[in-house]
UniProtKB/TrEMBL annotation:
<dbReference type="GO" id="GO:0016020">
    <property type="term" value="C:membrane"/>
</dbReference>
<dbReference type="InterPro" id="IPR036286">
    <property type="entry name" value="LexA/Signal_pep-like_sf"/>
</dbReference>
<comment type="similarity">
    <text>Belongs to the peptidase S26 family.</text>
</comment>
<dbReference type="InterPro" id="IPR019756">
    <property type="entry name" value="Pept_S26A_signal_pept_1_Ser-AS"/>
</dbReference>
<dbReference type="GO" id="GO:0006465">
    <property type="term" value="P:signal peptide processing"/>
</dbReference>
<protein>
    <recommendedName>
        <fullName>Signal peptidase I</fullName>
        <ecNumber>3.4.21.89</ecNumber>
    </recommendedName>
</protein>
<dbReference type="GO" id="GO:0009003">
    <property type="term" value="F:signal peptidase activity"/>
</dbReference>
<feature type="domain" description="Peptidase S26">
    <location>
        <begin position="53"/>
        <end position="278"/>
    </location>
</feature>
<feature type="region of interest" description="Disordered">
    <location>
        <begin position="1"/>
        <end position="40"/>
    </location>
</feature>
<feature type="active site">
    <location>
        <position position="79"/>
    </location>
</feature>
<dbReference type="InterPro" id="IPR019757">
    <property type="entry name" value="Pept_S26A_signal_pept_1_Lys-AS"/>
</dbReference>
<dbReference type="InterPro" id="IPR000223">
    <property type="entry name" value="Pept_S26A_signal_pept_1"/>
</dbReference>
<dbReference type="GO" id="GO:0004252">
    <property type="term" value="F:serine-type endopeptidase activity"/>
</dbReference>
<feature type="active site">
    <location>
        <position position="140"/>
    </location>
</feature>
<dbReference type="InterPro" id="IPR019533">
    <property type="entry name" value="Peptidase_S26"/>
</dbReference>
<keyword id="KW-0645">Protease</keyword>
<dbReference type="Pfam" id="PF10502">
    <property type="entry name" value="Peptidase_S26"/>
</dbReference>
Amino acid sequence: MTSPPPSPPPSPASRPEPPADAVRNEEAAGGAEGAGQSGKPAARTINWWVELRSLLVLLLGVLAFHSFVAKPFYIPSESMMPALLKGDRLIVSKYPYGWSYVSPSFHPLPFLRGRIWGRLPERGDIVIVTPQDSREDYIKRVIGLPGDLVEIRAGQVVLNGIPVPQRTLPPLMVPVDGNAPCPADQFPGALTYGEDGKPYCELPVREEILPNGRHYTIVDVGPRETDWYGPMRIPAGHLFLMGDNRDNSADSRVSFAQKGLGGPVPFESIGGRAEFITFSVDGSTTLNPLSWWTSLRSGRAGSSLHPARTRVPSGKWEIIERPVEALPDAR
């Protein structure tokens, strides 16, 4: 008895189709549909124009965000102590006062008058300012507005003939580190040691209350040349700015020759408002990533830079007569 002949293999056309979401072996392994005549996978070509265009779009998006919405900054000096320490990183919003020639990143534009949707800052705002003919950013506090009569008497601000209230606070103990070394030329006699045996910078501080009720802490070390200024009327379209570290800040009281702001600054030179601290480092970082975490200062991340408000006290305030001494070169 003879066996029936074997049936022929099914033709490709008669093979059942795999499900639509199945992975075809030949496609996944670079088989007949994905290989050249040699059986090797086809070389993948890179469209460099598409890649460069994507990077360019990303770069322009970042620059636009930094120019018109917000931008991160870092603090390189002690001029705004104690609100801001050297080594602080913070966010500056670009839109609260409108936009001007200093709004774009890297400041590519020359000085131009006017602002788009401009709105004056409030007294007490901490702002970024770029002096005319400069590419360097400063950070200071708004003290005087256009039309104000401003004067400094023995270190006390006098606005429109009325002394700005101050009260003495207990000394502020700032831990000494790589970014806050407590230099003797800026803080003479301030270096001390706490009960924990660690070095601290013991700073004499005062609370200052502006006419709108916003209050903050300033450092007042001793007599300086900048303890006396004016009186002068702030021109239209200008602002009078000061650092919180009053004896070590090159601000509107200090001439251009001393690397200061040279008087009231044009409103157009204001680049944005400081909002909050993102993080702060003590200067001990190295190339080793493990040191980045240990260098973080505790308790500073997320700190708001908007001064609180209170009722302006009434009554008289003491004016302390102090001799004039040389101004240290500080920004």
